[in-house]
Amino acid sequence: MKRGETYSSGWLKSQDMLDQGKVNGIDLTIKSVTTSTMNDGKVQRVLSFQEDDRELGLNVTNWDACADLLQQDDDDGWIGGVINIHPIKLDRPFNGKTHGLRVRAPQSV
C-alpha cells in the first residue's frame, strides 16, 4: 500500500498522482469553487470536482491558469469547466527538489 492510500486527505497531491502512475495528470470537471481558511490562517479559493472527492487549493499560479483556460476572470464562471491537474517538479531554494501540482488544458481533448 502506498503512503497516499494509508494517509489520505481531502486534497489532491502530486505524490498521490505519481504513486498511481498518473504522470500526465487527470482531467477533472469543476463542480464548485469555494473559499477556505487554511491551518496557517491564509484564505484560499478551493476547487471541488465531479469525478474526484478530493479538492485543490488554488495558489495564484493555478488560479491564473484556470482563468486563462476557462476564459473567465470571475471564478463563478468556471463551474462545468474541464481542466487537467498534473504533477511537476519544483526546485525551491530552501526546500530542495519537490513536486507540486499545476493546471493546464485537458489532455483528453
Low-confidence stretches: none
From the N-terminal CA to the C-terminal CA, the straight-line distance is: 32 Å
Largest sheet features: 5 strands, antiparallel
Helix vs. strand class: alpha+beta
Number of strands: 5
Strand order of the largest sheet: 3-2-1-4-5
Question: What's the assembly state of these chains?
Answer: single chain
Strand percentage = 35-45%
Overall 3D shape: globular
| N-to-C SSE string, H for helix and E for strand | HHEEEHEE
Query: What is the typical, i.e. mean, pLDDT?
Result: 89
Radius of gyration: 14 Å
Tally of separate helices: 3
How would you explain this protein's 3D organization?
The protein has 109 residues and is an alpha+beta fold. Helices cover 19% and strands 38% of the residues. Strand 4 and strand 5 form a beta hairpin. The radius of gyration is 14 Å and the shape is globular.
